[in-house]
Every structure is written in structure tokens, then in C-alpha cells.
Amino acid sequence: MSFENRDCVLIGATISSGTDIEGCQLGPDTLRAAGIAKTLEELGHTVEDTGNLTPPTTATFSNTPDGENLAETISWSQALQQVGYETVRNRNFPIFMGGDHSLAFGSVPGLTRYAHEQDRPQFVLWIDAHADFHSLDTTESGNLHGTPVAYITGDNSFDGFFPKLDHTLAPENLMIMGMRSVDRAEKARLSDAGITTHDMRQIDEKGVTALLTPFLERVKEENGFLHVSFDVDGLDPDIAPAVGTTVPGGLSYREAHLIMEILHDSNLVTSLDLAELNPLLDVRGQTARLLIDLTASLMGRRVLS
């Protein structure tokens, strides 16, 4: 399937249990109001909006680690895993609209399950200011949106709490771009994990094309599926203020669009997360519009054509 005729499925995930800042649960409806469906249709894609997902009744635990809203996040992960799996099994292109980045507890495992059934590798491009690689043992804040990368790659600190994954993401199939806020515990874990990481210094020195191309070549060579998990805080807050975890010095407008255009040209992307949009922190809707514009670049629009 080419990028010219994708059957897109919008999946609203009003999840905010991974963070202690209110507002990102409003992200899916904000993206709808800002015109994400119309934008995709104008690019020639079909769009089905399945509405906002309702997770099952939350589980309860007698002994929990220091995670915020653990049971609610687990319930979201189970619901998102199932809907993500079913969407790609039906050969559609899921767009998970968050919600905080703990939505990836569900989106990535569901996609990885399908990839395993097809005997193909799952790859993930994680665009974020943070590595989100804390375990339940190392997180100091207890905010679970800082831990999904550890879970999806099989960290055992989640055993006994989150459902054990039958198929985890191979760490070497994950690339994180845009990092600029990683604490000591995560640095130590990343150095041993085999995950490809590119911080903003590397992007400044080498450019996004040189860093992204080898990764995409691997995806193509191995006939993999590619999921893009896009956190708004990967962008510089001067152009994207609507996020609760702003870190100065992020991706510029042009760098972000170039990444999306390169991804479109590769014709390898099979699914997308849009995470951490907090409209309560936006300025006249500029971040929501930018996120839709970046999605449009991924799906075929050119900034300069």
C-alpha cells in the first residue's frame, strides 16, 4: 500500500494517568476540532474516526510500586493493545491520538503482536525530548509516561503489575530522536540496552537526514513494520508550547517537517502515535495545528512543493 491511499483509523486515547499535569486527555478532541480528518482526506486518504476509546474497569492491587495511577494505565494499555492489533490486522493505518505518552504501553505491543504473526520485525521511531526508559524501580517521579520504552522492550520490573508481553520490541529496532533531558539512571540503562539514540547535539552536528537514513534502510532490508511515536515535547517549545514537559532546544519547524517528509518518501510507516498535546497550555491553537501539519507531511503534503 502506498502513502497515496491509506485507510486511516483515528483512535482517541484520552489517557492522562501517566502524568500529574491535567489537560492532555483533551488532546484527541482538540485534534479533531483542528481538522485532522479533513486534512487527511484532502491528501487522498480515507478516514474512519472510531471515537475515544473506553478502557475496561481498572484493576486493583494490594501492593503497588510508586507509580501514579497504575491500575488505570494498565487498563488503558490492555484496551489500546487490542484495538491497535485489530486495526493493523485489518490492514488499516492506525493513528493513536493522545493523551499522554503512556498510550504507547498499548499501541506498540498491539502492533508488535501483529508483526510477530506476520513473521516480520516491528520497528519504532520514538521522537521525544526524553528517553521514557525508566523502569518501575528507577522512576523518581512515579509518572508512568516516563516508562513505556522500558515496558515495551521487556523490562522485568513490570512483572506482576502490567500484563507480561508475549512479544516485546527488540531494543535494536528502536531509535529515539530529539533527546535532551535524560537523567543519570536512564543514561546508565540506555548504555547497555542496544537502543539507537540521537540527541539534539547529534542532530545539530549531522542533520536529521544522515541520522534517519540508516535506520530506514534497516527497516526496508528486513521488511519491517515501522511505527512512529511522536511526543509533542520533541519539538522546541517556542513552536509547540502545548505540552506539560517542555524542554528548550528541541526540533525546529523545518527539522520536524523534514523528518516527516523523509518518512513519507520511505513508504515504510505503518502506524502513528500523537502524544502529549495539552490544549490547556496552547497559544491560540498553534501546537494542535502544527501537529496536524506534521501529520500531513508524513502522509504526503510538502511544505514547499
Secondary structure topology:
Blueprint: E1 7-13, H1 27-33, H2 36-42, E2 46-52, H3 70-89, E3 93-98, H4 104-117, E4 122-127, H5 148-152, E5 174-179, H6 184-193, E6 196-199, H7 200-206, H8 208-221, E7 225-231, H9 253-266, E8 269-275, H10 286-298
Parallel strand pairs: 1-2, 1-3, 3-8, 4-5, 4-7, 5-6, 7-8
Descriptive terms for the model:
Arginase, Chain A, 305 residues, 8 strands, globular, single chain, alpha/beta
Q: Regions with pLDDT < 50 over 5+ consecutive residues?
A: none
Q: Give the CATH level 1 class.
A: Alpha Beta
Rg (CA only): 17 Å
Report the average pLDDT across residues. Answer: 92
- Which range does the strand content fall in? 15-25%
Helix content: 25-40%
The quaternary state of the protein chains shown equals single chain
Largest sheet: spatial strand order: 2-1-3-8-7-4-5-6
Whole-Å distance between the termini?
Answer: 23 Å
CATH-level-4 superfamily name: Ureohydrolase domain
Question: Care to describe what's here?
Answer:
By secondary structure, the protein is of the alpha/beta class. It has one domain (3-298): Ureohydrolase domain (Arginase, Chain A), CATH 3.40.800. It is built from ten helices and eight strands. Strand 4 (122-127), helix 5 (148-152) and strand 5 form a beta-alpha-beta unit. Helix 3 (70-89) runs parallel beside helix 4 (104-117) and helix 7 packs across helix 8. The longest helix is centred in the N-terminal third of the chain and has 20 residues, at 70-89. It starts with 6 loop residues before the first strand and ends in a 7-residue tail after the last helix.
